[in-house]
Amino acid sequence: MTQQSRYQTSRALTKMSPNIWDVIVLLIVFGILAALAWGAARMALPYKVGESIEITLDPWALPGYAISSVLRMFIAMFFSLLVTFTIAPLAAKNRHAEKFLLPLIDVLQSIPVLGMLSITVVGFISLFPNSLLGPECAAVFAIFTSQVWNMILSLYQSLRTVPHDLQEVCKMYHLSGWQKFWKVEVPHGMQALIWNTMVSMSAGWFFVVLSEAIEVSKQQITLPGLGSYIYVAMREANLVAQCYAIIAMLIVILLYDQLIFRPLLSWADKFKAEIDDEEEIYESWFLTILTKTRLVRTIEFLFSIVCDWFINGYKKFTPRKTIDLSPQTQTAINETTILFWNVFLIAGIALSAIALVVLIQKEIAISEIIHVFYLGFLTALKVFTLIIIASLIWIPVGVWVGLRPKITSYVQPLIQILAAFPANLFYPLVVYMIIEYNLNHNIWTMPLMILGTQWYILFNVISGTARIPKDVRLAAKNFGVKGTLWWRKIVLPGIFPNYITGAMAAAGGCWNASIVAEYVEWGDQTIISTGIGQYITLYTQEGDFPRIALGIGVMCIYVLFFTRILWQRLYQFASERFTMDT
After folding, report:
1. Model-level pTM greater than 0.85?
2. Rounded to an integer, what distance in angstroms lies between the CA atom of residue 406 and that of residue 336?
3. Would you give the end-to-end CA distance of the chain in angstroms?
């Protein structure tokens, strides 16, 4: 072997050998994996229904509880992403599926977590008898239902608003539908999806209390976690324990923001449609460390090979088949498909209505059913009012922040923290104010409905503002476009698709949050406001399944009505009128 070959071999080995950054990253990764493995082992412990799981308010137990809660949330997030990349493209690319999926998503995101637990907990316990895995799966499923719908709507909106010039690029390079999806459409919606994933993760904390402290049919199951810790602290009216829970949540949120979401935002900068030297770039110390490691560079190289085969490699083995259809045949297929979907929708609605009537007709009088529709109307009025108020507040704030990228990088973690606080933590203040000043229950419990969901509007407005092309903003500035004209011609068209996504998710979250906002418990004090949320909560605790079904069914009817009348038309209007080219 020559001296030059020995030098090249030595240099190659040096490049492949680990460095100090590899050691640091491996220690962090192994620490996270060890914590998650410990939490996963606790999820499969033996358990029989009726056994009490002791939840201690000792602050030293909080790290273990935090690991358990975070594990449940990330398992739910994994399945949320899987469902998002399955359902969103189907709804965006198939107009017949869209007519079915959009109302279904809006209804499902509005079904209360208590309703989901009432339906699923028995099935999961039967699926995993004598194991804690049954209640754990029910808790994960409940958290999943609080995260997934907003993410689906975000990706759907991005797929429907791909700029025309990007679509022309796909045609020029003769990209297949599969290649177009992964090379153009997903990168176009990546930043919005990451932002909505962050707010979905934060909003999931709102439902942690309900999902970990399961109370169905007078049966109490408290799973070890931050949610059950908060539940016990509320039940015992222990303010000190609640402060400990707040500190633990702050630490957890900051950790996964720095280790996961901040690197993702920094990585997603490469998907921006335009280059702006003045725009603030997200920085991540953890991503910087990762780029210095030799192991990660090797993994990145192997991952790029796998991704290339995943996106392009199949064409080498599968010949492309084309079928030419006459216009008459294509029209007949379209009409048949439309007929099929309409029949399917009508049949589904009819069967659901029949099943609901059969379930409740023997035990519930007509007068009570009318009263429940009245309760649903009151909650709908609250939701509509809260969305208007939140929009008037957060649209100007979101636009102001979105136009200032440096401020956005500081505001984003703050919003995550605020969005993560469960409304339950504000119960002491709300109960004290209502009792001390003899306030109206129906009015002063309303803010609890919007506390955890208003951030959907702010996050999406910021994201939409940041995506307004710089040349459009500069042109408006050069022509002196200001005031109401600037809002009508530049800002509102630019943010409208994102705003609709946020407002729709916020409305669904408001319906869901009504179950805790209209039935407030703090120690021995209970404050009840009139609405369908308190009706569902009350009979869920009593285990009255016909009335639970009636309450959820009426809520779904209202949500479906608003979806067909308002949200679906706004979505179509946004996708047709407000797709801004870059």
Report:
1. no
2. 53
3. 56
